[in-house]
From TrEMBL:
It comes from Escallonia rubra. PANTHER family: HIKESHI FAMILY MEMBER (PTHR12925), PROTEIN HIKESHI (PTHR12925:SF0). InterPro entries: Hikeshi-like_C, Hikeshi-like_N, OPI10. This is Hikeshi-like domain-containing protein. Residues 17-121 form the Hikeshi-like N-terminal domain.
Length: 188
């Protein structure tokens, strides 16, 4: 059905490396693969095996879980996108998960794969969304720092010149034209 590769860390592994929970869910216990160093695995390539037919409206969704944390969606593959290299942003162990007395915190990190409705999943390109978010934050920080150098204080309000956005944007554009590497620094 599917296989995974941890780039620079493993050979291709097929579904037999995973524990099948039910018809549509599989788990890979990272303790058996890398022990407690699971967070050193930063990406996974998941791919559909030849001749496997996944319905058009379904996807194989990939999730990660650190010990004591909830599962976190990382991305998915579909017939239209039969392979993907996904970032693995491992949550902090023991994160926001609420446990009852009957529950036991997971003792090892896991990668989960499940067949799900494509329409119910978030964007399949989680890594691109995170890059866009980081880019927006860096540009916003650049604007804030620029404005701060021109602002004054009036009671509990900051006062900036009316043309500050125009001045910042013009400076930003000029710098980007002079130095093509400048914008690449924002995308890191």
């Amino acid at each position: 059905m599917f296989g995974v590769v941890f780039p620079n860390r493993s050979f291709p592994m097929d579904i037999s490396a995973f524990t099948q929970i039910d018809t549509f869910h599989w788990l890979l216990d990272m303790n058996t693969f890398v022990g407690e160093a699971y967070d050193s695995i930063r990406e996974v390539c998941i791919f559909l095996i030849n001749n496997f037919t996944l319905p058009q409206d379904k996807a194989l969704a990939v999730y990660i879980q650190s010990p004591g944390s909830p599962f976190l969606f990382c991305g998915a593959v579909t017939l239209a996108r039969p392979s993907a290299v996904l970032s693995l942003p491992w949550p902090e162990p023991g994160g926001q998960m609420q446990l009852t007395a009957a529950d036991a915190a997971p003792v090892s990190a896991k990668i989960g794969v499940s067949v799900e409705d494509l329409a119910s999943l978030p964007s399949l390109d989680v890594a691109a969304e995170r890059k866009i978010e980081r880019l927006a934050m860096k540009v916003g920080e650049n604007l804030f720092n620029f404005m701060q150098s021109f602002c004054g204080v009036d009671g509990n309000k900051l006062v900036v010149p009316m043309d500050i956005l125009d001045r910042w944007f013009k400076k930003f554009q000029e710098r980007a034209k002079r130095d093509p590497e400048y914008l690449k620094g924002f995308a890191l």
